[in-house]
Design brief:
Alpha-Beta Plaits; 7-stranded mixed β-sheet; alpha+beta; 5 domains; 27 helices; 6-stranded antiparallel β-sheet; Calcium-transporting ATPase, cytoplasmic transduction domain A
Length: 804
C-alpha cells in the first residue's frame, strides 16, 4: 500500500527516509522540504494545525528552492522597494501580504500563531477567504525579509498585496459562480420540461418505454449539475466533517447525493420514483441565494475598490523654476512636488492647493454630489474631479497614503472581523444542523418501521426544506449591506461590530471647536495692557501659534512671524517659545503664570487667548467661531439622546454654543485629562458614550468612549483613535449612522425570525410526509432569497432620523 506524506498528502517513498514525530508518533514525509516544515511546526508547538486542518498543505519547497526563495526575499528590505507597499506608522511599519498555499482555516490559525511568536511583530490578522494577511511590526527588532522567510519555512509563498490582483481574484470567483449557476439554470429548465411528461403520465398518455427514455435523459442532464454546480457544497461539507464540525453543507450534500443515487437506482432497476428535477432545482436555487450573498458580502469591498479606479495613472508635474510641465506616473509623486490639474481632470493625489480657486466634485469620497469650493491652502484628495479652473497642488503624501487607499484598507480590515452576533449565528447553525440530522434520522426509522415506501423521500424532503442557509445569511448579508450603504455616504467603519455597539448608545458627547463649529476662527478684538501695540501682539501670537495643531492657530496664519527658539505645545492649554531671548506664552487663562494681573483687568476676563512674558501679562485676544451650517439641524434630530459638550475653549464661548444648540451640559477649559475624566464619570453612571471629536487633544477621550467618531477635518491622531471616520467635515451624517445601525439590528432580527420561523413551520409538514423534494427545494430557496432581499434593502436606506 502506497504511503502518503503526512504534511502535503503526496506519495511518500517506501523507505521512510523522511520522518517527523507529530503527536508523539512518527509521521512519514515525502521530501526534505515537508520534513523541515513539519519539524518547524513541531518545534514551535503549533501541532494543533494538523488537528484542525481540513485540507492537506501544498508540498514544501526543496532545499534549493528554499535557498533561492530566501535570497529573493532579502530584496524586500530595500527602502526604495518598500515605498511601494509598506506603510510607515511612526516607529512601526505595516504591510498587507498575499499568501499562496492557504487551504483552510487551520492555515490561518497556523500563520497567526507563528507570527505571534516572532519578536517585533506587534499585530497580525489573517483573512483566510481572501488569502491575505495584515502585519504590523517594529523594524528595529525584525526585518520584513525575516517575516517573509519565516512564513516561507511553513510552506507558504508570500508577496506584497496588490489591489489589482485582489480584484482579479474576485472576478475569477464571480465567473465561477456564473458558470455553475448558468449550468444549473439551463439544465433545470430542460429536466423540468421532461418532467412534465411524467405529470401527463398520470393521464396514461406515456408508455413505459417513453417513461424510461425520459428518465435516462434526465439523468444525463442532471449529472453535470450534481458534480459541477453542486461541488461547492460537497467541498464545504468535507471541510466541516474533517474539522469535526457540522455546517449547513452537510445536510445539503446528504440530500443531493442521496436523491441522485436513488434516482440512478430507480432508473436502472425500473422501479421507484425519480426526482432529478428536484435535485437541479435545489442546486439552482441554493446557488442563487449564495450568489446573492456573494454579491452582498463583497459590496463594501467593491465600493472601496471602485474608488481606486478614479485615480489616474499619470500626473502633470509643474517645475516652478522653468514653468515646464512633465508627465509622470501618479505612483511616483513625492511630497513637496507641485501638480498642475486642469479643468475636467481628476486630481491624481492628496495635497494642498498652492495656487488657484475651483469647484471640486468629491462625491466619490463623501457621497455628496454638490461641488465643494476649494481655494489656496485647502486640502484636495486623489480621485476627486476638478470642475472649474486650473489649480496647482502641492503633494502632501505618497499614493499609498492617499485617502482612497486608506478607505480600501479600513474596509478590508472591517470585513475581516466577525461581530458577536455573527459568531452566535454560526454556533446556532451548527446546533440547528445537528438537530435536523437527528430528526431526519428518527423520521426515516419511524416511517420505515411503519412500512411506508416513501420513508427515504420524506427524509430527503426534511433535509432539503430545513437547510439553515437563510440562518447563515441572516447576519453577514445585513452587515455587509449596511457597511456598503454607509460608505456611499462617506462613513467608514474600522470594525464591523461597531454597528452593534451603536444601538446601545444613550449619550452623545461633542467636542466643540472643529466638530460643532467650523474651526475657522477670526480675530474679533485685541487688547494690549502693556507697551506692546496690538499689531505687535498679534505678530507675537502668530509666531507662537504656528507651532500649534489646534484650529485656533489658523486664525493667525496670515500675520508675519518672528523666529522662535524651542517652541513647546501644551495640549489644550497653549504654546510657549523664546523670541529675541525672551520667553513668551499664549493660551488659556489657566496657562498664564500672572493670574493676579488677569483678575486686575476685568475687561479681559472673557478673552479667548492671553499673552504674557516672564515678567507680566501683555494682553488678550478674542476670537469668533461660527457654527457649521448643519449643526443645529443635526442636534435637533438627536434630542432623544443625552447631549454634552466637552471643550477646551473659554467658558463664555462654550456657553454661547450650548445656548444656541440648547445643549444643557457644557464643560469649558477642559484639558485632555478633564475630558477623559468626564467620560469615565458618565460611564460610571451607566451611560454608553458616543464621542465626536477632531483634534489631537481628543484622542484619549475618543479611545475611552464606547464608540468614537472623528469628522473629516480631524487630526491623524484623532482618526487613529476613532472607531468611525466621517469623510465630510461635518456631523450631518450622524443621524444616518445611528438610524442605519438601528435598522440593521432590526433587519438581523427579522432575518432570524424568518429563518427560524420558516424552519419550525415547515418541519412538521416534512415529518408528516406532506412535502415532496421539489416543494422542499422551492421553499428553502425562497426562504434564503427573502433573507438576502430583506438585507439588501439597507443599500437603499434613506432615512436620516434615528429611531427613538
Amino acid at each position: 500500500m502506497q504511503i502518503t506524506c503526512f504534511h502535503c498528502g503526496l506519495d511518500a517513498p517506501n523507505d521512510h527516509e523522511f520522518v517527523v514525530r507529530v503527536f508523539d508518533e512518527p509521521r512519514v514525509m515525502c521530501c526534505p522540504g515537508c520534513q523541515a516544515v513539519a519539524q518547524s511546526i513541531v518545534d514551535n508547538q503549533l501541532t494543533d494545525y494538523y488537528q484542525f486542518r481540513t485540507e492537506k498543505a501544498i508540498q514544501a519547497p526543496s532545499a534549493e528552492e528554499q535557498a533561492a526563495l530566501l535570497a529573493k526575499l532579502s530584496i524586500y528590505d530595500a527602502p526604495e522597494l518598500q515605498t511601494d507597499f509598506v506603510l510607515d506608522m511612526g516607529e512601526l511599519k505595516e504591510v498587507q501580504l498575499t499568501i499562496e498555499g492557504i487551504t483552510c482555516a487551520a492555515c490561518g490559525w497556523l500563520i497567526e500563531r507563528h507570527l505571534v511568536k516572532q519578536d517585533g511583530i506587534v499585530q497580525n490578522a489573517v483573512n483566510v477567504s481572501a488569502a491575505r494577511a495584515s502585519i504590523k511590526w517594529d523594524p528595529k527588532k525584525i526585518s520584513l525579509s525575516a517575516i517573509l522567510s519565516g512564513l516561507s519555512t511553513l510552506g507558504y509563498e508570500v508577496q506584497p498585496f496588490s489591489p489589482e490582483q485582489h480584484e482579479l481574484t474576485y472576478q475569477k470567483e464571480h465567473k465561477r459562480f456564473i458558470k455553475q449557476l448558468g449550468l444549473a439554470g439551463i439544465m433545470t429548465m430542460q429536466v423540468m420540461m421532461l418532467s412534465m411528461g411524467f405529470y401527463f403520465d398520470w393521464l396514461g398518455n406515456i408508455d413505459a418505454v417513453m417513461r424510461e427514455y425520459f428518465q435516462w435523459i434526465s439523468l444525463v442532464l442532471t449529472t453535470p449539475v450534481v458534480f459541477y454546480s453542486g461541488s461547492t457544497f460537497y467541498l464545504g461539507a468535507f471541510k466541516a466533517i474533517s474539522q469535526r464540525r457540522l455546517n449547513m453543507d452537510v445536510p445539503v450534500t446528504i440530500a443531493i447525493l442521496g436523491t441522485y443515487f436513488a434516482g440512478i437506482k430507480a432508473t436502472t432497476l425500473h422501479t421507484g420514483e425519480v426526482f432529478f428535477e428536484s435535485i437541479c432545482m435545489f442546486i439552482f436555487f441554493l446557488l442563487t441565494s449564495r450568489f446573492l450573498e456573494h454579491r452582498a458580502r463583497y459590496k463594501a469591498t467593491e465600493i472601496a475598490s471602485n474608488t481606486m479606479k478614479y485615480v489616474p495613472v499619470s500626473a502633470s508635474v509643474l517645475h516652478p523654476d522653468t514653468a515646464e510641465v512633465s508627465i509622470v506616473t501618479a505612483k511616483s509623486l513625492q511630497p513637496g512636488q507641485i501638480v498642475l490639474v486642469k479643468p475636467g481632470e481628476i486630481i491624481p493625489i492628496d495635497g494642498i492647493i498652492r495656487h488657484g480657486c475651483t469647484h471640486i466634485d468629491e462625491s466619490m469620497l463623501t457621497g455628496e454630489f454638490a461641488p465643494v469650493t476649494k481655494s489656496t491652502g485647502q486640502p484636495v484628495y486623489g480621485g476627486t474631479l476638478n470642475q472649474h479652473q486650473s489649480i496647482e497642488v502641492t503633494v502632501t503624501s505618497e499614493l499609498k497614503y492617499a485617502l482612497v487607499n486608506q478607505i480600501l484598507r479600513l474596509q478590508t480590515n472591517a470585513m475581516a472581523q466577525k461581530p458577536a452576533i455573527a459568531l452566535m449565528a454560526d454556533r446556532l447553525s451548527q446546533y440547528f444542523v445537528s438537530a435536523v440530522l437527528v430528526i431526519a434520522t428518527a423520521t426515516y426509522i419511524t416511517w420505515d418501521t411503519l412500512g411506508n415506501p416513501d420513508a427515504f423521500w420524506i427524509t430527503v424532503s426534511i433535509l432539503i426544506a430545513t437547510c439553515p442557509c437563510a440562518l447563515g445569511l441572516a447576519t453577514p448579508s445585513a452587515l455587509t449591506s449596511a457597511m456598503a450603504r454607509l460608505q456611499q455616504s462617506g462613513i467608514l467603519l474600522k470594525q464591523a461590530n461597531v454597528l452593534e455597539a451603536l444601538t446601545d448608545i444613550n449619550h452623545v458627547v461633542f467636542d466643540k471647536t472643529g466638530t460643532l463649529t467650523q474651526g475657522k476662527f477670526s480675530i474679533k478684538h485685541t487688547t494690549s495692557i502693556s507697551n506692546m501695540t496690538e499689531s505687535e501682539l498679534l505678530t507675537l501670537v502668530s509666531s507662537l501659534e504656528q507651532y500649534s495643531e489646534h484650529p485656533i492657530a489658523r486664525a493667525f496664519s496670515e500675520y508675519d512671524v518672528y523666529p522662535v527658539i524651542d517652541p513647546k505645545q501644551h495640549l489644550n492649554l497653549g504654546v510657549e517659545g523664546c523670541i529675541n531671548s525672551q520667553t513668551y506664552r499664549c493660551g488659556q487663562a489657566k496657562f498664564m503664570r500672572h493670574q493676579n494681573q488677569i483678575s486686575e483687568h476685568p475687561q479681559i476676563h472673557d478673552a479667548t487667548i492671553y499673552v504674557e512674558d516672564d515678567t507680566s501679562l501683555l494682553g488678550a485676544i478674542w476670537l469668533d467661531d461660527a457654527l457649521k451650517a448643519d449643526t443645529l439641524d443635526t442636534i435637533e434630530q438627536l434630542r432623544f439622546l443625552k447631549q454634552s459638550i466637552l471643550s477646551g475653549d473659554s467658558q463664555a464661548n462654550v456657553e454661547a454654543v450650548s445656548n444656541m444648540l440648547n445643549i444643557p451640559s457644557g464643560f469649558a477649559q477642559c484639558s485632555p485629562e478633564d475630558k477623559l475624566d468626564a467620560v469615565r464619570s458618565y460611564q460610571a453612571q451607566g451611560d454608553r458614550i458616543l464621542m465626536l471629536g477632531d483634534g489631537i487633544n481628543d484622542s484619549p477621550v475618543l479611545a475611552q468612549a464606547n464608540v468614537s467618531v472623528s469628522v473629516g477635518n480631524a487630526s491623524d491622531l484623532a482618526k487613529n483613535a476613532s472607531d468611525i471616520l466621517f469623510l465630510q467635515p461635518s456631523i450631518a451624517s450622524l443621524p444616518l449612522l445611528l438610524a442605519l445601525a438601528q435598522r440593521c439590528k432590526i433587519v438581523i432580527k427579522q432575518n432570524f425570525m424568518w429563518a427560524l420561523g420558516y424552519n419550525l413551520l415547515i418541519l412538521p409538514f416534512g415529518i408528516a410526509g406532506f412535502l415532496t423534494p421539489w416543494m422542499a427545494a422551492l421553499g428553502m430557496s425562497l426562504s434564503s432569497i427573502i433573507v438576502v432581499y430583506n438585507s439588501s434593502r439597507l443599500l437603499k436606506f434613506e432615512s436620516t432620523r434615528p429611531l427613538s
